[in-house]
Amino acid sequence: MSYTKDEMMSVAAARVLTDDTRCFVGIGLPSTAANLARNTHAPDLVLIYESGALGAKPDRLPASIGDGILGETADAVVGVGEVFNYWLQPGRIDVGFLGAAQLDRHGRINTTVVGDYAHPKVRLPGAGGAPEIASSCKQTFVVLRHTPRALVDRVDFVTSHGKGPALVITDLGELRPVDGELTLTAIHPGVTVEEVRAATGWELRVAEDLVETEAPTEAELTALRELKARS
Amino acid sequence: MSYTKDEMMSVAAARVLTDDTRCFVGIGLPSTAANLARNTHAPDLVLIYESGALGAKPDRLPASIGDGILGETADAVVGVGEVFNYWLQPGRIDVGFLGAAQLDRHGRINTTVVGDYAHPKVRLPGAGGAPEIASSCKQTFVVLRHTPRALVDRVDFVTSHGKGPALVITDLGELRPVDGELTLTAIHPGVTVEEVRAATGWELRVAEDLVETEAPTEAELTALRELKARS
Amino acid sequence: MARIVSLADAVAELIHDGDSVALEGFTHLIPMAAGQEIIRQRRRDLTLIRMTPDIVYDRMIGAGCAGKLIFSWGGNPGVGSLHRFRDAVENGWPVPLEVEEHSHAGMANRYIAGASGLPFAVLRGYTGTDLPGVTSTIATVTCPFTGEELTAVPAVNPDVTVIHAQRADRKGNVQLWGLLGVQKEAVLAAKRSLVTVEEIVDELTPVPGAITLPGWAVTLVAEAPNGAHPSYAQGYTERDNDYYAQWDGISRDREAFGDWLAEVTA
Amino acid sequence: MARIVSLADAVAELIHDGDSVALEGFTHLIPMAAGQEIIRQRRRDLTLIRMTPDIVYDRMIGAGCAGKLIFSWGGNPGVGSLHRFRDAVENGWPVPLEVEEHSHAGMANRYIAGASGLPFAVLRGYTGTDLPGVTSTIATVTCPFTGEELTAVPAVNPDVTVIHAQRADRKGNVQLWGLLGVQKEAVLAAKRSLVTVEEIVDELTPVPGAITLPGWAVTLVAEAPNGAHPSYAQGYTERDNDYYAQWDGISRDREAFGDWLAEVTA
User: Fold this and answer.
1) Which residues contact B52 (CB under 8 A, 6 or more apart)?
2) How does pLDDT run across A6-31, given as a tens digit for each residue?
3) CA distances from D211 to A163, C154, D140, D181 (A)
4) Is residue D266 part of a domain?
5) Subunits with at least 3 CB pairs below 8 A relative to chain C?
6) B5-229 — its CATH code?
7) Does the ipTM exceed 0.90?
8) Residues D248 and D171 reside in one and the same domain
9) Full domain range(s) for residue D45
10) N or C: which end of chain C has fewer CB within 10 A?
11) Which of A82, A86, A94, A95 to mutate to test binding with chain D, by most D CBs within 10 Å of its CB?
């Protein structure tokens, strides 16, 4: 079965979520991956959304962080204050799964501004839940599309960091921190290292034991496409 | 209609609660008075119990602060943390209505110990909600039976004080603070000043404009007795 | 007991030029109709407070109602940018917009402190971020027991909070269910409050997951059917996802937005 | 996912001599059966934590399970004194009992801080009282924004929290309704938790006013029908007001209590 780069990214991101993991899910790419995981190999994955849905089990992709289906299918619905204070802050959540507008070589995330804060070139949406998701979850994964504008040498503004992401999944490969610097550790089938380097805003290091990601299986692709079709 | 001293006390205590007042109600004598008020002249009195019942409307006297009827009839049920933090603490409640084991001439309440704290003669139940009820409500009323052991010169332990009670209703009369000292301002029918003085643990001052409480009306007594009969 | 009035009268009575105003609702139950009415009544120099400004504030900012925005995430959810918000921040159009920027955890705790009658809240927040460098309302506090240093944010106590709920009874008791957001805290933190509702009913029958705000904790209630559109009211209306996408087109340039505004204020 | 075990196995696994243990339930849903089982298993030197010690702790104190009590109101509600509690404090019988005494507001906030992963909570409390003079866990903290001085209390994080609820499903999701108390906070503040339930069911049908504790936030669930007696479980059992009065007689003298204890531990 042929597949797109975006599909490879979502499948790769879904694979890193294991059953019974508690995952604090950002909307967009992380939510797609997390719901794909729940619909394939990790049916007991616990999805927590900042809108107050604990253990959401949507059968389609939520259109927004406040999609009604999140509350309707959740184990429990709590207020936004409670989800941050009682559920995120004490370190109960295993994985924080975030997107990013910009990510730098040290794993710092920017979703605030491009350019100067007081006179920004581009005003981005801002922090949302990310700073505390990044610092309070046991580990953070980031999923984003691989472009030189997204993966930069140094972000213009540190919106969130925490311990830094343990894993970054892009549409070209996977990066992990090695000696404090995000390093290419896996590459998706059909992608070359040169391609990844060209799409990265710094001199990307490549792990000696670089592996090739397994291509999406037919089951994974079918599940992803069905999920998207229902959404 | 003849009536007991306790009935006079409950009726007098009920009368001071006016319609639409928000009243934080202690269990026991205050709860009896507050529910009598709601069943007579103040049907829209708002009763708040520390067990989390906001706007409770019991048709009988609750057997405890956690009687199920409080939650079943309430406008809203909230957790105990919320009732103190969101509802009591910001000063939303007009009247705190408390009982007391001991009350002194300066309006300080003791429900902690008789004797020394480390080696008490009598260990009383302790503070409960009283310290913050006394300090956070716009004003505090106290209702208790008038004995020299209850109304003392100086409490052994200050469990709660706040601004001090604006009004104390006993089975003999009513006391209000005058120049910082609780002073007899009303006396129940058939009770003499000497009787009240003998039942008070300090040299009780008597207001110049001492008034006699109006005896319970038939309607008040009937309502009180029906309420007790249902309980 | 809350008074029940028309939406126009409620906005006229409660919201004045220069007020700090929180319209809350976390993606669900956004008080959009109230936002439109504030635009219609041409309020100016408001300090707008809201975790997720969304279309409701994009409109008010574009209409020139706001002098300042206190927020934590300002995007068009599921679509992209809030163009009027960006135009105000990037170009000062139609008027300059001061921003005071927090995280969701910080904003939620500011409402909690406000609802609790406390001057500040404590959290573990903003660690390793640049936010404390640009936002003066982020400080530290030391635990008197452990000596640990934590983050503090000041209470937010809006002059007026506006929320949308499913329904109220004739005494102004408000019933709200589905995703709950920070609406309770936002109402309790405010000096005055307005709740718009899908409908006013004789009796609030119990609904699983519903919370009730007693009428004595609310200032005014106004009926505003479909008052959350394009957001939704669980059990009453559906989210209009297409409109969120359409708004991108309307808001993207000043002229298209001007046409929209002229229609609203006509 | 919580594991479902017998009450005896749950107590044996979770509660050890010397542990700090909170059995919570504010008059409603008091985990009485769990308290009895702790007595049966002869736990010693526990630090008992609970806002309202009630009969459940009067028994455990009289049985000699407790070395310390952290509490805010220790009476027999609607009846009078807790005689075993008084005997322990006044006469050190059967063993001396250290007390750490707070107000309800203080205790509730200690649980909230514990549930929130914070070392302390801020409140307006204890003003003008003698409590700060006898309780070392009451301090002050200064608002970094206004300079106002407020009260601070440390988080409480029990080794084990035990609560009673109406029911759980087979994955250990717990459903609880009626007066809610501080049970959610007490469970979330604890390192380990046990929920006893009236019944285990296949599906938790929605109930107005109910909250759910996800099974992944609970360690163990045990079935204990009528496990709150003489307290009650809204929708399942009624409060046994007569028993509260009877307990006054049982607990008033050491001999009558001894007979009761012998029967329980037989």
Assistant:
1) B71, B77, B78, B79, B80, B82, B83, D26, D179, D180, D181
2) 999 999 999 999 998 999 998 889 99
3) 33, 30, 34, 12
4) no
5) A, B, D
6) 3.40.1080.10
7) yes
8) yes
9) 3-102+157-260
10) C
11) A86
